[in-house]
Amino acid sequence: MMKYTILFLLLPILGSAQQISKVTISGTINDSKTKVTIPFGNIQLKTIKDSTLIAEKVTDVYGQFKLTDITSGKYMLTVSYMGYKKMELPVLVGMLSAFLDLGNLDLEEDAQALNEIKIFSNQVIGISNKMDKKTFSVADNMSQEGGSVLQVMKNLPGVSTTQDGKLELRGSDKVAVLIDGKQTAITGFGGQTGLDNIPASAIERIEIINNPSAKFDANGNAGIINIIYKKNKQEGFNGKAGLTAGLGALGQKKENLPGIRPQYQNTPKINPSLSLNYRKNKINTFFQGDWLYTQTLNRNEFAERTYDTGEIIRQQVKRNRITTFATAKAGLDWNVDERNTLTVTVLFNREKITDRGDIPYFNQDLTIRSRLWQFLEDEVKYTTSASAIYQHNFKQAGHTLNASFNYTFHREDEKYFFTNIMPTYIGEDSFKLLSDEQVADLNVDYVRPLKHGRVEGGLKFRRRTIPVNMQFFPGLNSPVDISAGGWADYSETIPALYTNYVYENNKFELEAGLRVEYVKIAYKVNPNHNTYKSEGYDYAKPFPNLRIAYKLDDKNKISLFYTRRVDRPNEVDIRIFPKYDEPEVIKVGNPALRPQFTNSLEFGYKNNWDNGYFYSALYHRITDGTITRIATQVSGSTLIYNVFQNAERSYNSGVELIIKQDLVSWVSVNANANVYQNTINAFQVENKYPVPVTYRAALQKLFSGNLKINGLFHLPNKLEAQLTGTYLAPDIIPQGRISSRYTVDLGIKKLVQKGAGELFLNATDLFNTLKIQKEILGNGFKIKSTDYYETQVFRIGYTYKF
Questions:
Q1: Smaller CB count within 10 Å for the chain: N or C?
Q2: Residues sharing a CB contact under 8 Å with residue 610, sequence separation 6 or more, in sequence order
Q3: Which helix (H) or strand (E) element contains residue 736?
Q4: What's the gap between Cα 728 and its chain centre?
Q5: Mean per-residue pLDDT for 67-81?
């Protein structure tokens, strides 16, 4: 009990102090009778409280004006011109949009009936005032500085990870991950991959969008995570260089079963990074380069498998991994003139993974080893992405037209080598997989500010192809299914249209949007495949979103959200080729898999005060055609096959609470609790590979959640410290449950060299407590396992700005 008491006393923060973006106000002054514009009119903006002058302008020859860099607050706008009555207009700066078009302001001799106007501002750090997005600075997360993006995300409110390392938002792993607002092959189109290899040093901030508008693609029922890369726009030449080094697996959590190769220990990590920027006149050029090298004990799972026959097998899956991840991103911003800009970006990435593993099989008392399976995985992935974004700014501030084209090429080159050591023989098997993914996206987005909000719309067209070729090379008495090899071609075509409307007055906010997508998927497979045939599907569906908010007063707001979203199967989910996670547990896709559709409702409340805020959300999601992986056993065989299937309806309901408080000038605390219930209705499916097997599941229901506390300490001599604690409650997984787990992270940072340099030291899973325990109940078998994988890592780093 003492360790839990210490945990909750010490635990952690992610959010930083709120920072308000600047706002641009625009409009045109006219003669009220002739409607002729008035050039060289005088515009002043003053605070209502004490009449402090904030901005002053003279209209141009077209009678137009722009006031920039305005923060939130209550103002009085004064418009005057010789021969006309002075106009005074109260202006309240709101929190929804960075631009406001006040429209035509008519000057006349008679007094005007003035309407209160609202202008919007975006919150950069913390929870947005729309309550649809949370934004976090990576630099403020000291306990994970120098690690990967995935490690940073584990500490964010509402975020957790599954037993196989996938991100979850509010208990669902159906998360769409974007980089700079776009889907890429690095993070997966429609899914999430590679996050544990993206260096946090390359990232400026992370946005969590639980209720996306119609502007975003409709996939990802749990929401969207948007990763924003660093880019500087200071004048002249400047940059930032950094170096991080670390060690993990300092101690052995659990010893190997007899007769296998050692676990990785004292695993090194190194991450040099360089960011350069040069801005002069109309051109801004930028470069971001990172190289990440890590050794990890990626998996160290001990399991006991019990069959209905009474046979008991004890096994260990140990996987030592070496990863190198190199990324280079470069581009330029060209301000062609005051109305037109062009941004061109090129990104190259190379990821290499080498896994060496051992999987021994013993009887219950470890006296007889029936099998030893050793493997080597050599995988290389290349990604090249190029994008061009053109923006036209109309005379009206914030009135824009954007057109962009993005092309991505992604090569996946995998080789697997297996040595099957049996009591009477040794077999050696291998296979090779090659796929070249190509994606082309065209987007057009239009935004027009209105007097009380804005209207936006656009279109998107995507064409994506993934040809895959799998070759098997069986050895002596091979368990590899050589007839399941060959080729398969995946293609998708997705045109989409969207429109979105935002309105705000003194008390009420409305955002309503509609996205319509047509999706056509084709999956052609080798006609000689022993189980699967070519499949495909298409649909045309509307995906609406609605947000209604009411401001109780200046510090309290309530919001109601509704969204409809879809999760299409990823290509790897339907990939027909079996993959040996271990020799007796085989993973294979399902071409008959179909999308799942989710309707979400959320009620949110936020209260701001001078030194903090409180945020709460009640949410409920209903998903039809739930995508899940089902494990079955073929009669007369010890092999277990994991196949993706569409279950019936599932539900996810819960409450999320966040409180942030500056206790004193040098201590800030942020606490996040997320409690939810996952329910999966009873269902029946048929796994067709390698032979048809029917599986029936009873209704599953479980309360779960997580608690995160984050403390930030501003100490003397420019020293900062952060302590973060996370507790994850038990939860249901496909065919089973995962037990609770907890961890504590620590980070220390100090500014040196007059603020140009920064030193940091941190520890992930400080007390080495994190491990994954789960139970799975299948047809004819039961598995209990604990994964003692590497979680404790100590890092030290230095960055320098120039």
A1: N
A2: none
A3: strand 736-738
A4: 19
A5: 86
Q: How far does Cα 12 stand from its chain's mean position?
A: 21
Rounded to whole angstroms, the Cα distance separating 208 from 223 reads: 7
b/e sequence 61-96, b meaning 16+ C-beta within 10 Å: eebbbbbeebebbebebbbebeebeebebebbbbbb
Nearest by Cα to 454 from 21, 59, 26: 26
- Euclidean distance between CA atoms 541 and 594, whole angstroms: 14
CB count in 10 Å sphere of residue 151: 21
- Predicted local distance difference test score (pLDDT) of residue 110: 52
Stretch 38-58: mean pLDDT, rounded?
84
516-575 residue pLDDT tens? 999 999 999 988 888 999 999 999 999 999 999 999 998 899 999 999 999 999 998 999
Nearest one of 178, 187, 185 to 208, comparing CA atoms: 178
In which element (H, E) is residue 112 found? none
Q: Would you state the torsion angle of the CA atoms of residues 491, 598, 657, 610, taken in this order, to the nearest 10 degrees?
A: 70
Residue range 147-175: mean pLDDT, rounded = 76
Question: Which among 649, 704, 660, 698 has a CA at the least distance from the CA of 678?
Answer: 704
Across the beta sheet with 53-58, what order do the strands follow?
53-58, 42-47, 74-80, 87-93, 117-119
Rounded distance, CA 127 to CA 117, Å? 24
Contact (Cβ atoms closer than 8 angstroms) between residue 696 and residue 680: no
